[in-house]
Amino acid sequence: MIKFLHRFEETVIGLLLVATTLLVFVEVVLRFFFNEGLLWAQEATLYLSAWMVLIGASWGIREGAHIGVDALVKTFSPSLQKTMTLIALALAMVYCVLFFYGSWVYLSKMKLIAIEMEDIPIEKWKAMLCLLIGFALLGLRMITVAIEVIQGKRLGFGFADEAKESMHLAEEGVEGMPTRRPVEGKEESK
């Protein structure tokens, strides 16, 4: 099931990214070279991006791509870090459940009144299903992380640690990075 979820997220995000990029490219070419445009392109791009962001949030948790402020948490013992992570995951699940429920209510009303999108002849609730799917995937990822924390496979969320990575690069010296040299004819101030 988890492998299917991984594949589903990657495939959908890839397809959405390609579709959005191609649509924007075609729209730019039509506008600048032919003084024409697609009436529905802006709205389609907006909804494609919404789908990409909401599904991408779940993928970001899996990959540890989200940035977290966990400097304080890392100073605690591993057992306390585990407890704090589980509390944070519980709060994040409350957030997901609230948004999932709110999305359900909102989309149910949209379906009931049958509002269509402005430029595309599709009922708006269908285009906005990304809310339900995105928050369901996000909640599923939170549960997966919680299970991994409980099993001891993971200590925390697994946030990207940009400060650590930057310091590592600075210590090693990155090939091709510009170095500071004095300007010709001037001495370097000390």
Cα separation of the termini: 62 Å
Percent of residues in helices comes to: 55-70%
User: Helical segment tally?
Assistant: 6
In round numbers, the mean pLDDT is 85
Q: Overall 3D geometry?
A: globular
Strand content: under 5%
Structure characterization notes:
The chain is mostly helical and 190 residues long. It has helices at 2-34, 41-63, 78-113, 124-127, 130-151, 162-172. Helix 1 runs antiparallel to helix 2 (41-63) and helix 3 (78-113) packs antiparallel against helix 5 (130-151). The longest helix is centred in the middle third of the chain and has 36 residues, at 78-113. It is globular and about 60 Å long. The mean pLDDT is 85.
Brief write-up:
The chain is mainly α.
Give the SSE layout:
Elements: H1 2-34, H2 41-63, H3 78-113, H4 124-127, H5 130-151, H6 162-172
Helix pairs in contact: 1-2, 2-5, 3-5
Question: Which terms would index this structure?
Answer:
mainly alpha, 190 residues, 6 helices
